[in-house]
Amino acid sequence: MDREQGLLKALQEAVISGDPRNTEQVAKKAVKEGIDPLLALEEGLGKGISTVGDCFGAGTMFLPELATAADAMQAGTKIFVEELKKSGVERKVVGRVVIGTAAGDVHDIGKTLVATMLVVNGFEIYDLGTDNSAKKFVEAVRQYQPDIVGISALITTAMVGQRDVLEALAEYNLRSKVKVIVGGGPVTAEWAEQIGADGYAVNAVEAVITIKALMGINQ
Amino acid sequence: MTLAGFTCKNPIELLTQDEKEAIHEKTLEILKNTGVVFKWEPALKVLKGAGCNVDFESQRVKFPRDVVEGALKSCPSSFRIKARDPKYDQEFTMDRVYFVNQTGPAIYDFDTGVRRGATVKDLSEITRICDALENIHGVNPPNLGVADRPPEVGFEWATAAMIRNSTKGAWTASGVFTVQWLIEMAKAAGIQMLIATTCESPLTYPADQCDAIMRIAKEGWGMFTDTGGECGASSPATLAGTVLQVNTELMAGLVLQQVVNPGVGFLRVTMATPMDMRNGYYAIGIEGYMLAAANASMSRFYNIPSASFDSLTGGKLPTDQQVGYEKAMSYLLLAQAGVGYIIGAGGIDDEACVSIEQIVIDNEMFGMIGRYLQGITVNEETLAADIIQRVGPIPGNFLKEAHTKKWWREEQYLPTLNYRLSYKEWIRDGSKDVAARARERAQEILRIHEVPPLPEDADREISRILEAAEKEKLDK
């Protein structure tokens, strides 16, 4: 029991210190020592990341800490998810999100902040990076079967790429299977409505709230 | 002919000569060892032809020292951009300082105080106001998205509205594969435009921007290249590191431009600003202004003019003190540092919104800064030792002196928006704050200021280009 508590605490601390490599090692060690992967995910990594999230909210931790903690969280999660797969146990996640920047736009930061904030809130993220064609989004939706697709655009002219993704999803009969949220500097709620997106958010914190609302998750 | 604009004779330096040399050496090191990505095959080809080490697979270009030095050698220390009215030609030199307006997708509505998307009519009015104001030396399309036109052709419509409504020197952003239409429009109006091309930090030139750099260089027009490291996010958290990265990115763009057309003018532009680590927004403020000043220092090191987008404010309304003090600090510092082209008039809320009142207020700030840049003239006559001795002590006074009559107007900038009368008179005059007074001025300008229209055939040609751009982009 003490040993289990010790492992959970080590996992929490690894996430809080934001060191992915260390988190991976601690996770591997915990697996070797026979920890329950679900417990490790929730009470270890999960508690660590929610501590970081709380500190961020309280203004005692900042985005560099949050971003590295999210990376550590994902590195550790991978180890335990593999263990779960071996035992055939299904892991419950809050939601799956495919996220990326629209075609013709190489801006990365805003989209990465949204992804970070979603990881902190327990979502599983598939980050496609920048400059993604509509086809790439369609392929990702087929492959990962997400609940949510998030499309970012910072350049005014790349906003059209957001509309292209929505049209492509409809064309491939995938539109009803996902909720689509758009964001980025010049994007407005009116634009989101005009192109038929399900949601819009002005920043990363709002994005989490919007996505949770779209998925009917109580906040 | 005297051209519009101010002159900065004795710029302040944020970097010492040793520091500049260190930054230059590190720039060459990064360019040689790591290089910069250009996501455009034709750019890779010309850079390879010029002696760069190019990996076509990763689109990475590494720059030998001699190639960089060659570009620095062929780049001129001044260039001119032809305006509709020759007195508004913009001459970018090592000591000119121009103030121009800022762009943003929304407008703070003049009459209702509501913020909304800007229409072509708004863009035309904003440009007309900039055209009328004496200390706004050139014009930018006030909004690069137009609410009443398809977003695909927002840049084209905004640029057309600018060309049609001002005879001042024009700037525009190149957009995504839009630059060919913008160049055509400028040619139709018989002008050149300063067209912005952008490096995306860190160390990446997107395909459309490479295309734009090459097209503008081929036209032989001086070019504006900007980069906007966001300290701690897309560039190092340190200001020095960001100055270095900005310098490296601008140098890579300069090489591409000079390889395509040696001897064409280049404007080194930064919009670098830290990220606010509490929320991910731009940490608008003094650090960004310092980065613009430091870029001006580096630009002097190379004898190439500089510009900046960094005169941003986070404030939301033209009545908000935050707008006033952030703008005042930034405009004055940048002008003192000799930044050659300072973009900012009318901008509020970062780059999200344009306020007409603010353009008028900023015009007044520019006037005062222009006065500062003139400095203090010290000579026998201005020292006035003889007059002090003749008039003083009390009860003598200077009001009736011929020296006073001659000199006071030379020495004082006469503001027209500032209120300097007593409180009692201020109440009598309607208790108006500066934004209210600016609004009245703007209304007056819109009522009386006329801009000579383009020749009919030029105007028709611009309409044809807009239609052609719309057809090509929307039928895709």
The CA-CA distance between the termini of chain B, in Å, is 47 Å
Could you name the ranges of chain B where pLDDT drops below 50 across 5 or more consecutive residues?
none
Number of strands of chain A: 5
Proportion of beta-strand residues of chain B: 15-25%
> Per DSSP, what share of the residues of chain A sits in E-state strands of 2 or more residues?
5-15%
Rg measurement of chain B, Å = 23 Å
What is the oligomeric state here? heterodimer
Question: How many discrete structural domains of chain B?
Answer: 2
Give an overview in words.
The complex is a heterodimer of chains A (219) and B (476). By secondary structure, chain A is α/β, with parallel strands linked by helices. Chain A has 9 helices and 5 strands, in the order ααααβαβαβαβαβα. Chain A folds into 2 domains: 2-87, Methionine synthase domain (Methyltransferase, Methionine Synthase (B12-binding Domains), Chain A, domain 1, Orthogonal Bundle); 96-214, Rossmann fold (3-Layer(aba) Sandwich). In chain A, strands 2-1-3-4-5 form a 5-stranded parallel β-sheet, sandwiched between helices. Chain A is globular and about 55 Å long. The two termini of chain A are 33 Å apart. Chain B is α/β, with parallel strands linked by helices and 476 residues long. Chain B folds into 2 domains: 6-14 and 73-374, Trimethylamine methyltransferase-like (TIM Barrel); 380-411, no CATH class. Chain B contains 17 helices and 21 strands. In chain B, the strands form 5 sheets. Chain B has a 9-stranded mixed β-sheet. A 4-stranded mixed β-sheet of chain B has the order 3-4-2-13. In chain B, α6 (179-188) links the parallel β11 and β12. In chain B, α3 (65-74) packs across α8. The termini of chain B are far apart. The model of chain B has no long low-confidence stretch (mean pLDDT 95). Chains A and B meet through α5 of A and loops of B.
